[in-house]
Specification:
about 325 residues; alpha/beta; 9-stranded mixed β-sheet; 2 domains; single chain; Spore Coat Polysaccharide Biosynthesis Protein SpsA, Chain A; 12 helices; about 20% strand
């Protein structure tokens, strides 16, 4: 029985599919099965998959069902103790599976581990990357508002995924399939990221996660509100948690008359952080950095309420520029 099952869903992915598969089959960790599910592609993805001469590859073709249903089909099929995700556009760097297995074997309380990722545009590397939090506490804080995992970088214990029912196929809660599932996992188990570049994430238009109608923002706010409520209710109402999530993401909620004051929003956020991280004296540098960044985002959203609309884009440009300069200087030191 293989130790790892890699699930690779494919939908019209022929452009980068060969490279994606090769990055899996040439991993330093050899004991795995690769389950490729062709979700109704109309390009030559199927012929590419059938041309792979590797006994570890198992191929299934189906009528188009969408990403969540396709991934759940893969979860039902796997034989491995761990499930690794891979997207048709992305690449595993050679030691990714080895390091993730080692991490999960040495951290039995951790259910899921992702990695840092290089960002490419097409075949061109950029100077950008996804360097999400590494520790469980900082990730639990991140999950209050956002998804701190790159989907195609994660490895999850198979038993955990099956116990939680896999990805939600409720259309009103997707996308983002991954943020919704990671939130459920993190409410029951510890999670982590390996702070090493072990995955290449391509920015590609028209991938499986980018097609069709995209109610992304409102679903993110709903999931964020649920995550906040998990740590703040009953001290604060769910409506207040929803208002905080909406504020953080710059969306004024409909059908809710109350508006949080800045003082209350910052207080709620600090209470949530204390619930997750414990006493201030116990906070790690990583946790403090994430907390301060979130506090700054909340303050920024209040400032935007009073900023003339024609100044919002220039102000955002200046903020992004200063952020990139800070990152560059930090890497140079």
């Amino acid at each position: 029985m293989p130790n790892i099952s890699v699930i690779l869903p494919v939908y019209n992915g022929s452009t980068y599919l060969r490279d994606a598969i090769e990055s899996i089959t040439t991993q330093s960790f050899r004991d795995f099965e690769l389950i490729i599910i062709n979700d109704g592609s109309t390009d030559d993805s199927e012929s590419i998959i059938k041309g792979i001469g590797d006994s570890r590859v198992h191929f299934v073709s189906q009528h188009n069902q969408g990403l969540a249903a396709t991934l759940n089909q893969g979860i039902r099929m796997v034989k491995g103790r761990y499930i690794a995700r891979q997207d048709q556009d992305d690449l595993m760097l050679q030691t990714r599976l080895t390091k993730q297995v080692e991490y999960l074997e040495s951290h039995p309380d951790c259910a899921m581990v992702g990695t840092w990722c290089e960002i490419w545009v097409g075949n061109k590397p950029t100077d950008r990357s996804h360097r999400h939090s590494a520790s469980n506490e900082a990730l639990q804080l991140d999950l209050l508002f956002d998804n701190p995992f790159v989907h195609s970088s994660v490895m999850v214990r198979t038993e955990v995924l099956r116990n939680l029912g896999g990805y939600s196929e409720n259309e009103s809660r997707q996308p983002p399939e991954d943020y919704e599932l990671w939130s459920r996992i993190a409410k029951n188990y510890q999670v982590a990221n390996i702070p090493e570049m072990l995955t290449v994430y391509r920015e590609v238009e028209g991938s499986m996660s980018r097609t069709g109608v995209n109610p992304f923002l409102m679903n993110v706010i709903q999931i964020s509100a649920e995550n906040i409520a998990t740590v703040l209710v009953p001290k604060f109402s769910f409506d207040e948690c929803y208002l905080l999530a909406s504020l953080y993401h710059g969306k004024r909620p409909e059908n809710r008359e109350n508006i949080l004051t800045q003082t209350l929003a910052l207080l709620m956020h600090k209470k949530a952080a204390l619930t997750i991280g414990g006493d201030l004296s116990d906070w790690s540098e990583e946790f403090i950095a994430r907390f301060n960044r979130q506090q700054a985002q909340i303050k920024s959203q209040f400032a935007r309420r009073f900023l003339p609309s024609f100044l919002i884009k220039p102000a955002q440009f200046v903020k992004n520029f200063l952020t990139r300069i800070t990152i560059f200087l930090g890497r140079s030191n």
